[in-house]
Amino acid sequence: MVAQISTSVIPFLGAEVAATYDAASVVILPIPYEATTTYRRGCENGPDALLEASQQVEYYDEELEQETCREIGIYTHFPIADTRLRTVSAEEMLQVTQQTVYQLIQDGKFVIALGGEHSITTGVVEAYRQFLPTEPFTVIQIDAHGDLRFSYEGSIHNHACVMRRIVDMGLPTVQIGIRSISQEEASLIKEKHLTVFRAREIATQPDWMERAIASIPTAKVFLTVDLDGIDPTLIPGVGTPEPGGLSWYGLTTFLRSVFETHQVIGCDVMELAPVVDAVVSQFTAAKLVYKLIGYGHIV
């Protein structure tokens, strides 16, 4: 286990509603790791920007008609694998992530990891796979990109390879909002009959959501959200923006349906790269995290 490298953290939504670790059902885990960004850098600053923006999120959720944070204890963990403080190798990042998430699951916490680059998800998912060795679960990916390359720029732990690592774990996947893939990825999708709902299908086929929910093969799911899966007019602050993508209400309606029909075991929200002098990306990301907590704990 890597030693603690930060002694202070901005609590999600603010100190007024922050729970102690023992009292919390939900743990927010910041992982400000960035090493393989291939376009716009800055996702190592994503977790702090999201947590700071969360201070402005209204406690009352008008959709769910509840102050979720007063019903459910939320604890914000200290950041791990922080590349702003020192160099962290991919192997070390995956190890500390897997070990930390495993301990949180063992303590009965619902974990929402905040990235950082998408490669982090490999360590998060591995923790769940080790904790649930005989219970299958599906990884649902919201993303603009397939992330199915075997390796990229000399690394199998590049952010462009995260879903390939998960496929190689033998876990079923459902990919939502995809609109940028390589020839290698297109061939793998056909070869392995991977379930992919492309952004153009979502834009033109009204029944896509029902079909996507029906395609999930297991009762348990893990949700990984790369923020570039959302239309970049809503969240421009990402590493590799792609035109098109999910609308806010398309995304939240789908996520709520997943929570209502399946057991969501954990989540992550990745690739926030804040834009200078603009707060819309981090505020929208913070509100998305609050929605994930609310959908999992409707009272």
3D architecture notes:
- The chain has about 300 residues and is α/β, with parallel strands linked by helices.
- The protein has a single domain (about 15-295), classed as 3-Layer(aba) Sandwich (Arginase, Chain A).
- Helices cover about 35% and strands about 15% of the residues.
- The protein has ten helices and ten strands.
- It has helices spanning about 45-55, 70, 90-105, 120-130, 160-170, 185-190, 200-205, 210-215, 250-260, 280-295, and strands spanning about 25-30, 60, 65, 75, 110-115, 135-140, 175-180, 195-200, 220-225, 265-270.
- The chain is globular and about 50 Å long.
- The relative contact order is 0.18.
- Residues about 1-5 have low confidence and may be disordered.
In a few lines, what is going on in this structure?
The protein is an alpha/beta fold and 299 residues long.
